[in-house]
Design goal:
Elements (H helix, E strand, L loop, with lengths): L1 E8 L5 H13 L2 E8 L6 H9 L12 H17 L3 E5 L19 H15 L3 E5 H8 L6 H9 L4 E4 L8 E5 L4 H13 L7 E7 L10 H9 L4 E7 L3 H9 L5 E5 L13 H9 L5 E3 L3
Parallel strand pairs: 1-2, 1-4, 2-3, 4-5, 6-7, 6-9, 7-8, 9-10
Antiparallel strand pairs: 5-10
């Protein structure tokens, strides 16, 4: 049984994220932990008041508590209705008061409060699920924000980013560039979701050089054929940074498995612009894992 975190930022409930978790539970029972994080920068009333008077930043129970309670009740009732084993985590009293130092009114309560908690929670989980569109809505943006980049960079478990409207995957796209990062992500996916490895899987290597072949093709095929029942190797003769998202937009009902995001050792295949575009356009579920 896997332990999966479903993170709710503020007072937004992601139907897409919950529905995906429900479908996963149907395939293999899991423990679903709802983590209800402190409000982000959209809750200006407590943000400025707390910093201005020098008092402790209030806990979530003191900020829009009625709306938050409704979201928690909704999560609990949906889990009970669908026979999902669940937990609720919303106590942030063990987090030290943030050191605001010289940041003043520009300090970011979400990063100061929520990120340490999310990082800690992710140490004790197999997977973190985020409804990306709802996450952006609460941050006041329609593209991957610094909050999301922080999450993908700092959490200690793989992350699954989901659009609100999606079809449950009918195929898996394994993005491969020959680096350890991409291989690690693919292996993590196979270990976490053996129930999905019976779906058609496409190992994609993109390179504008028509003569270039898959890096380490034979050992990679030997490895993945042990995990994926229906595996196809596909060479995309294109610049991945410019054309991969266009190509992938035509792959309906698929899930993308990618390597590291926004880290210093990132390979050319996964430059920020590449992953950002796919996530920002809410094209399909994206599974991200890094060492």
């Amino acid at each position: 049984m896997k332990k999966i975190i479903l993170a709710f930022d503020g007072i937004h409930f992601s139907e897409g994220a919950f529905e995906f978790a429900r479908r996963l539970n149907e395939l293999q029972p899991l423990l679903l932990t709802g983590v209800f994080l402190p409000q982000g920068e959209t809750d200006e009333s407590w943000r400025y008041a707390s910093i201005a008077d020098g008092s402790d930043i209030p806990q979530m129970e003191n900020s829009k508590s009625r709306q938050v309670r409704q979201i928690i009740d909704r999560f609990e009732s949906r889990c009970l209705e669908n026979g999902i084993d669940f937990r609720v985590h919303k106590d942030f009293t063990n987090i030290d008061k943030p050191e605001l130092k010289n940041e003043g009114l520009f300090s970011d309560p979400f990063r100061e409060l929520a990120m340490p908690e999310l990082r800690r929670e992710s140490c004790y989980a197999d997977l973190l699920i985020l409804g990306s569109e709802v996450f952006y809505e609460n941050m006041g943006t329609h593209s991957p924000s610094q909050y999301l980049k922080d999450v993908l960079h700092d959490v200690k478990c793989p992350v699954l980013l989901l659009p609100e409207k999606l079809n449950f995957p009918e195929s898996i796209i394994l993005a491969y560039d020959g680096t350890e990062d991409s291989i690690f992500a693919i292996k993590q996916f196979a270990y976490l979701f053996p129930e999905l490895t019976n779906l058609p899987a496409l190992l994609v290597y993109a390179n504008e050089d028509a003569e270039a072949d898959f890096p380490d093709k034979i050992p990679m095929e030997e490895l993945l054929a042990r995990h994926f029942i229906d595996l196809t190797l596909f060479k995309l003769d294109a610049d991945p940074k410019k054309q991969f998202s266009s190509w992938i937009s035509r792959r309906k009902s698929a899930m993308l498995v990618s390597g590291s995001y926004g880290r210093s050792g990132l390979s050319a295949f996964f430059k920020k612009s590449f992953v950002n575009e796919i996530i920002a356009d809410h094209l399909l579920p994206v599974f991200v894992a890094h060492k």
